[in-house]
Design a protein that fits this description.
Blueprint (H helix, E strand, L loop, with lengths): L1 H14 L10 E7 L7 H10 L5 E7 L15 H14 L8 E4 L3 E4 L3 H13 L7 E3 L4 E4 L9 E16 L9 E17 L4 E4 L9 E8 L5 E8 L4
Parallel strand pairs: 1-2
Antiparallel strand pairs: 1-3, 3-4, 5-6, 6-9, 7-8, 7-10, 10-11
Amino acid sequence: MKRVALALWVCVAVALPGVASARHPVVVELFTAQGCSSCAKANVWLGQIADRPGVIALTWSVDYWDYLGWKDSFAQPEYTSRQQSYERRFGLLDVYTPQVVVDGAAQSPGDKTADIDELIKQSVRSRRPEPQIRFLSDGRIGIGTGARPLAAAEVWLVRYDPRAQDVEVTAGDNSGAKVPLRNVVRRLTRLGAWSGRAIVFKKPDPIPGGLTTLILVQAARGGPIVATAQHVDASR
């Protein structure tokens, strides 16, 4: 068993060079809620840029507006916790919706689409060499070598639904409305830490629903995103 583990480690360390040949797409995260009366424009915009080349768009449904009378059907406490990490990092007074975070490096109100487009361009211009991420044939995920952020880094597995969908809201501020959503996150799992050295993680079993798996290597405590990779689950 030890020999197999050692052989796997050597193979991964050799197969994952320090610098990837291409930069990762810009990750655009929208924090929204089905009960948010001011989120419609941002929801529609997120659906539009989801098909933009070089962009990975994610919709995070948060739960802190549930008290208004409508319980968001996709919200999870860990999604709100993710937004709170950004709140602390950017020195904001509180979390809010709609909020957009670009590559973990900058944030903007979600309805200021021109400002967000500029943040996306800035992110592309400021790219640095990054580690490779590979989905290995044995179901594991390999992260290559690279420069670790000063605040250390974490590896996150995100599973999201790439379909466009409308949610009919029957209570609260959006009662009677259909809320448009795209790329809704359904699962967030922390795989572990990344120290800058090659490492392998076990990939959790896929969940039903034809979801797309996204790996994020991100500086700790809501820092900049270092690298990403996507994989469509075989069950899709």
